[in-house]
Amino acid sequence: MLSLLYQEGPSTEGIFRRSGSAKTCKELKEKLDSGAEVDLACESIFVTASLFKDFLRNIPGSILSSQLCDKWVSVMDQGNNEEKIKSIQRLIEQLPRANVVLLRYIFGVLHGIEMRSKENQMNAFNLAICIAPSLLWPPVSSTPDIESEFTKKISSLVQFLTENCCRIFGEEITSLFGEI
Predict the structure, then answer these.
(1) What would the pLDDT profile of 58-92 be if each residue is shown by its tens digit?
(2) For this UniProt entry, which residues form the secretion signal (predicted)?
(3) Which of 73, 98, 166, 169 has the fewest CB atoms within 10 Å distance of its CB?
C-alpha cells in the first residue's frame, strides 16, 4: 500500500482528500482481512489511500499511542522548532519499534507528496488535515468542542512532522522506498 502511495501519490491531485469507492473499499478490506491475495495496483489510488487510512484507524491505541496523547498534544505548545523536534524524538523513542518503522514510511510518503504539492494540491497542511485523525485519537471520547480542538492540535503536529520529517527521522527517509 505504502509503496503504491509513494509512487502514485505525488502525482495525484487530492490524494488522501478524495475517498475511494465505499463498496470497493469494503470488499477489498474483507479480502485483505481474510488473507486473500489483492492487487491494489489494479484499483484506484484513492481506494488504496482510503484503505490505508482505515488500516491506521484500526491500530489499537493508535500508531502514536493514545497513552502518550497528552504529550503529543503539548508538543506544539513548546518553544522553538529545535525544542519541538527534540520532544518529538523523545516521544518516538517511547513507541513500539513496529510503530516507529511504520511512521518512518508514512512520513516518507507524505514528504514525497508534499514535495510535489504544486502538482497535487496537497501541501503539509492539507495532508495533515486528511491524515492526522488516523494517526492519533484521545483515549476517551469527549465533547464535540474538545474533539474539534484536539483535531486542530494533532493536525498542527502532523503538519510539523511532515515539514520536518528529515530532521526528525533522518535524511534517509527520502530513500526508504529505493528507486521504484
Answers:
(1) 999 999 999 999 999 999 998 899 999 999 999 99
(2) none
(3) 98
